[in-house]
Amino acid sequence: MGFRLVTLNLNGIRSAANKGFVAWAEKAGADCMGVQEIKAQADDVAGRFERIGTLSGHFHYAQKKGYSGVGLYTRKKPSEVITGLKNREFDAEGRYVEARFDNARRKLSIISCYFPSGSAGEHRQQAKYRFLDVIYPHLVRLKREREFILVGDVNIAHREIDLKNWKGNQKNSGFLPEERAWLTRLLEQAGLVDVFRRLNDRPEQYTWWSNRGQARANNVGWRLDYHLATPGVAAKAVRESIYRDRRFSDHAPVTVDYDFAL
After folding, report:
1. Residue ranges making up the domain that contains 97
2. Which of 116, 125, 192 is nearest to 155 (CA)?
3. Are 154 and 251 in contact (CB under 8 A)?
4. Nearest in space to 148 (alpha carbons), one of 198, 97, 213
5. At what angle are helices 122-145 and 177-188 packed, to 10 degrees?
6. What is the pLDDT of residue 1?
């Protein structure tokens, strides 16, 4: 018995559903699936997306319609579900949902998180930095209390290997020195693990492609979608994959199989 965890930025759950996402997800064999940028409200989800196959959804919606929002689908019922970071600015944007699976043996959280993009301009880049300042101490505190795996669109390509045109993007949001240094600090000082990279150190492993030109066809992409885990559960990761056969959004699903059961 293993644990399969999938993450995907949907770029709109209704749009992704029209492209076959739900049918694929029902057959993906996931025990949990984190989704980001659902761009939907509770009444849009009701009757359509509360469940996917045997998975039940838990959501954190943005106040603004058609914007952001995250979900976490789980096969096993969580002992607790937490939405938001107790931060007014970012909780209004629907960026964090955490399911806890606690028992006598273990405290474990699975988190779906959508980090802000700074590509819309300097005001959004500053919001992204504010979010990084909020999420870092939160994850450090959480790591002291429990094991966790955070999946989601982090909107940062960590190293040169993580995007095709790294030389031309050093002044662009997503590959700025400050963002990359933040992620290095999260991994080296806070002690979290980039699970995909632990299993796969090959180049050209991308999860997002621009809609411009033939970026996807030519695999001119970025790796923006992560499994970030505490060392204990990260050590149990055994297989990774990026699903590219069908296109549900401008991102691709990232799946990791772990050698433990909930």
Report:
1. 3-258
2. 116
3. no
4. 97
5. 0
6. 77
> Considering its fold, how many domains does the chain have in total?
1
Q: Is 153 a catalytic residue?
A: yes
Q: Tell me how far apart the alpha carbons of residues 229 and 236 are, in angstroms, rounded to a whole number.
A: 10
Contact 225, 7 (CB under 8 A): yes
Burial 202-230 (b: 16+ CB within 10 A, else e): eeebbbbbeeeeebbeeebbbbbbbbbbb
Q: Yes or no: say if 192 and 139 are a contact pair by the CB < 8 Å rule.
A: yes
Q: Say how far apart CA 70 and CA 253 lie, in whole Å.
A: 15
CB atoms within 10 A of CB 79: 12
Tell me which DSSP letter residue 178 carries.
H
Q: Is the dihedral of CA 55, 88, 115, 119 positive or negative?
A: positive
* pLDDT tens digit sequence for 151-201: 999 999 999 999 999 999 999 999 999 999 999 999 999 999 999 999 999
The tokens for 39 are 């761009």
Position 149 confidence tier, pLDDT thresholds 50, 70, 90: very high
Catalytic residue among 44, 91, 153, 245: 153
**Alpha helices in 173-259, H assignment, sequence order:** 177-188, 195-199, 231-234
Instruction: State phi, psi for 34 to the nearest 5 degrees.
Output: -90, 135
Query: pTM of the predicted model, to two decimals?
Result: 0.98
Specify the 3-state DSSP secondary structure of 191: coil
Here the CATH number for the domain that contains residue 164 is 3.60.10.10
* Closest to 54 (Cα-Cα) out of 79, 78, 83, 25: 25
Cα(102)–Cα(108) distance, integer angstroms: 6
